[in-house]
Design goal:
Layout lengths: L3 H4 L21 E6 L14 H7 L7 E3 L5 E3 L19 E5 L14 H12 L14 E8 L2 E6 L20 H4 L11 H5 L7 E6 L4 E6 L13 E6 L3 H9 L6 E2 L6 H8 L4 E16 L25 H9 L3 H8 L4 E3 L23 H10 L3 E2 L5 E3 L2 E2 L1 E7 L2 H15 L4 E7 L1 H4 L17 E6 L7 H4 L25 H11 L4 H18 L2 E14 L2 E2 L17 E2 L3
Parallel strand pairs: 1-9, 1-10, 16-17, 16-18
Antiparallel strand pairs: 2-3, 4-6, 5-6, 7-8, 8-9, 10-19, 11-18, 11-19, 12-19, 13-14, 14-15, 20-21
Helix pairs in contact: 6-7, 8-10, 14-15
Amino acid sequence: MNLKATLLGAAAAFAMAPMAMAERGSDGHVNIIYWQAPSLMNPYLSGGTKDLEAASLVIEPLARYDETGAIVPWLVDTVPTVENGGVAEDLTSITWTLSEGLLWSDGTPVTSADVRFSWEYCTAEGGGCAQSEKYNDVTDVEIVDDRTVIVHFGISKPFPYGPFVGAQSPIIQASQFADCLGAAAPSCTDANFSPIGTGPFTVTDFRPNDVISLEANQNYRDANLPAFSSVTFKGGGDATAAGRAVLETGEFDYAWNLQLAPDVLANMQSAGQGQIVSGFGTLVERIMVNMTDVNPDLGEERGTAAHPHPFLTDRDVRQALSMAIDRALLTEIGYGDAGRPSCNVLPAPAIYASTANDGCLVQDIAGANALLDAAGWERGSDGVRERDGVRLSMLYQTSTNAVRQDFQALIKQWWSEIGVETELRNLDASVFFGGDPASPDTFQKFFADVEMYANNFDGTDPESYMANWACEQAPRPETQWQGNNMPRFCSEEYDALVAEMSTTGDINERARLAKAMNDMLMQEYVIIPLVDRGRVSAHSNTLGGVILNTWDSELWNAADWHRLSN
């Protein structure tokens, strides 16, 4: 299968036949399968894409990104700008006005109080918000009237579209979540499983890590939408089964994230039941390197900055791990045309893509060995290097997936060639990417030496994304183990770049700063990028209206999905 034609460009979309206007729910039932099963429906409590995307069927932001990466109004009629007077001339505030007549799915009005509350919820003291970087520099969300709010920033903010824009920053109902602020947030099970929303569907039954049942929101703002009356959102299994369920058997209508070898996908598509949709965005498969000690003997301080890692704090070790990897081979085996070897955690848009780290594209086992030799890491009788009684022995974790397990096996072999011992662990994706602060197995808690997964960001501006690795973003007990700085990397210089970008308006200067942050992370080797992955999903031949969006939730326009005749 040659996916290259569909993967070139910012995003690929397969246009289906236009939908004739029909009554809400007239197209019956639609089946969606995400082999990484959602654990909850609240993206503020989970950094997992599968939770965020499931929630996007129910709760929505004020504005979002379309398939081209452009910001489009969603719960408002107009996106505020300096030109239309919505953004202050000094860039210290942005004014949003809700569309008239918006209702929550329970029939109550959506008001400015809900918008303000969403900010208060994510920034409440004692809580852990997985998307807190979206609200960086916000000092207040002022209620002007029932439909108007002014978001105030403590600085001039050239890009004021972090709060309430994109699926990662939705509006939640103040009355439903009123008792769920701060440390109480994870305990609000009903709200977290069945949020009241403005989206096209509402939850009728939520079974964590299994199945979600939804029905059309009878108070949705377009009287003719959604076309489907009900949804089964199936989770679990694996990517192979999900792909077959759409492309071979036709049992499901949409399958997300088909992380499968190219030949496997080609064979499935040949069955003629469905088609693949794909496009490059900012999704990078990477290895995160833990800068903290995860020894269980450390108790509640395990995996925190109070205890540096016994050997991964040595930059030479981290660099050697990166040098030993053959990214071209990983890409060929795992993704074919749906992947590109990457030396950056920020691969796109093109203006932000650095070329300073391209040396990683060439595997260098000999160089990695020489680096470790010079650093005093000597091989023991078993071939594993050690220094001052510390052995280079690691636990390498990721989610359960055939491609990822292939990557683990290859990387373990390459690391053995430089004297590093590696134990492999794979965890159920629903748990690994879940947000349960009590679980020891989440990717946020990171109770391993290195871990591998892919991530991306909303939209085309990387300000909030690069802020993920600020010191304050490190998951820890005080944040309910939420946060996006999985390596627990902390640098005053990096934090200064984050702060500088937040006040910089010139696009070329923003690009310079974003590249500088990317390069610091790459050259400190706290993140080891592997593959710039295209998103690959599939839909049945009878499902119309699907437009793949690599800049927001893939389910961003599910209200427009409809049934095509056979």
